[in-house]
Specification:
Elements lengths: L5 H7 L6 H16 L11 E2 L9 E2 L6 E8 L6 E5 H9 L5 E8 L4 E8 L9 E3 L14 E4 L10 E5 L2 E2 L2 H11 L8 H17 L3 E3 H5 L2 H7 L6 H14 L3 E5 L2 E4 L1
Parallel strand pairs: 3-5
Antiparallel strand pairs: 1-2, 2-3, 4-8, 5-6, 6-9, 7-8, 9-10, 11-13, 12-13
């Protein structure tokens, strides 16, 4: 993978007067020529038709879809996405794309970071509804959304490029395969429970943790899953699932270790 954007930038520079449009085309062209599919052995992805809902690219071997979001220098706390209802429905129905968050540096014309978030980590708590466009706007009433990427579990953040250091396709695929069991959960509620528990484990910020530390997130989990009145038993159940999947290890007496 080459992170240099110089050639692509030069190729398209004369075609656009708008810098934002130029950067969009450059980043998309780079992604199409450089990105591999982490879910299979295909080393290229293809562009989807313009205005495709909730996705920009597809792997023609395994049909995984990808949405690319690019920003200058840093991602910040949130990334602007498309229509709220479209992404909301895609998440609930299991049609959310894999997100790729890219940052670039125009001074060096290079990709600085490319963060891949598998679709099974895209859940409603990270989707923020924006204010509808005003009545005087061309698309009056249209409501967009933001992706709160910092709320995603570290397990769901796979760096393809980090601080200009490129990971191999093999490295990324190994990490993907470790968490791909989540795609077996067709039911949104079941899948989101597991990703929420992973987020809580991250928040403890310790390699070794215990049940009492996990119980501190009872209110947070109850807010995300208001129909469940047995939060503590659910925590214990899902810690066992994560142990069986090789994500954590049971040490004993309510003690666990992150693997």
């Amino acid at each position: 993978m080459q992170i240099d954007l110089t050639d692509i930038f030069s190729q398209w520079r004369s075609s656009y007067n708008s810098n934002s449009q130029l950067i969009r085309v450059v980043s998309e062209e780079w992604f199409k020529t450089q990105m591999f599919c982490p879910s299979c052995n295909n080393n290229r992805v293809e562009s989807l038709p313009n205005n495709s809902k909730a996705a920009d690219f597809i792997c023609t071997h395994c049909n995984e879809t990808y949405q690319l979001k690019s920003k200058k220098l840093t991602l910040g706390r949130k990334v602007v996405d498309g229509q709220y209802d479209t992404m909301h429905d895609a998440i609930i129905e299991g049609r959310a794309p894999n997100f790729c968050f890219m940052t670039y540096d125009l001074s060096s014309l290079s990709v600085t970071n490319l963060l891949l978030v598998p679709r099974f980590f895209i859940n409603l708590p990270i989707l923020e509804k924006r204010k509808p466009l005003s009545a005087t706007a061309r698309r009056a009433g249209w409501t967009g959304c933001n992706i709160l990427h910092q709320e995603i579990s570290d397990r769901g953040k796979l760096f393809v490029v980090e601080k200009q250091k490129v990971a191999s396709a093999e490295e990324v695929r190994i990490k993907w395969n470790k968490i791909r069991f989540l795609q077996d959960y067709d039911d949104y509620n079941a899948r989101s429970w597991i990703t929420d528990i992973l987020h809580c484990i991250d928040a403890v910020k310790k390699e070794n943790f215990n049940l009492q530390e996990m119980y501190q997130f009872e209110a947070y989990l109850a807010s995300n899953h208001p129909l469940n009145n047995n939060i503590k038993p659910k925590i214990r159940q899902l810690l066992q699932v994560l142990r069986d999947r090789g994500i954590i290890d049971f040490v004993g007496r309510g003690e666990y270790r992150v693997l």
